[in-house]
Every structure is written in structure tokens, then in C-alpha cells.
Specification:
The protein is built from 4 helices and no strands. With about 140 residues, it is mainly α. It has a domain of about 70 residues: Helix Hairpins (Orthogonal Bundle). α2 packs antiparallel against α3. The protein is flat and about 105 Å long. The N and C termini lie far apart (about 90 Å). About 0% of the residues are buried.
């Protein structure tokens, strides 16, 4: 079998073969696994960013105390703001995941066109009983 690497093979005194590999097609996981996996990954990354941000804040505060330079305090303030924003993103991520879970479950009970059939005195008695039970 002749290939374009024959001259190299002869110069190096080796034999080479071209091996064709079959590409494995990864099956996409179910749609339910992807949001959960993404949530866990995002959550881990945000936790990591918050921890590194806390370390950076501690370091910059040491620099601020040593140098007493206004720019160092400005940088410290910006860094603290960024860490706070990251924690807000973490809370938003949890809220969004909770909303996704609620969407999957759907409404628990649906009442359409609920109407009370009875007299006004029956309605007053029912409301009075309900208010006594709630206390």
C-alpha cells in the first residue's frame, strides 16, 4: 500500500500504517438530565468564584491597610461588589431551577368557573365557619 509518507518511512527506516478510526457518536442525554447537570455545574462554578473572590477581598484589604492608597480602596470596593453580584447570581440560579421544576409538575389543581350556589345567609355562615377554623 502506497501513501504520501513513504519517503519519510524510508528515511526513518520505519513502517507506518494509516488506521481509520470509527467516530463514536455520543448519545445526547435526556432533556431532564441536562438542566440538572447544567444547574449543578453552574452552581459549582459560582461557589468557586465566590470563594476565590473572598480570598481576593481579604488580600486586597491587607494591601489597603498597608498602603493607605485611595486606589486600593476603590479596587477593594469594586471587588466586594463583584463578589456580592456573584452571590446574587447564585440565588437567581436557584430560583430559576425551582421555576423549571414547578413548570414540569404543572398546576396542582385547576378550578374553573367556581360558583357558590345557595342563599346569602348560607354564604355568610360558611364564611364565618371558615374564619373560626383558621383562628
Amino acid at each position: 500500500m502506497s501513501n504520501s509518507y513513504d519517503a519519510i518511512d524510508k528515511a526513518l527506516d520505519v513502517k507506518s500504517e494509516i488506521v481509520r478510526e470509527k467516530k463514536k457518536i455520543a448519545k445526547k442525554s435526556s432533556e431532564q438530565d441536562d438542566p440538572t447537570k447544567d444547574y449543578e455545574y453552574s452552581r459549582g462554578q459560582l461557589y468557586s468564584l465566590v470563594e476565590k473572590g473572598q480570598e481576593a477581598v481579604n488580600g486586597i484589604l491587607d494591601v489597603c491597610q498597608d498602603s493607605q492608597h485611595p486606589r486600593a480602596y476603590e479596587v477593594a470596593g469594586q471587588l466586594i461588589k463583584h463578589v456580592a453580584d456573584t452571590t446574587d447570581k447564585l440565588i437567581d440560579l436557584q430560583r430559576k431551577m425551582k421555576d423549571l421544576d414547578e413548570d414540569k409538575s404543572g398546576p396542582k389543581s385547576v378550578t374553573n368557573n367556581a360558583m357558590f350556589v345557595g342563599s346569602t345567609s348560607d354564604l355568610q355562615k360558611m364564611l364565618k365557619d371558615m374564619s373560626k377554623q383558621s383562628k
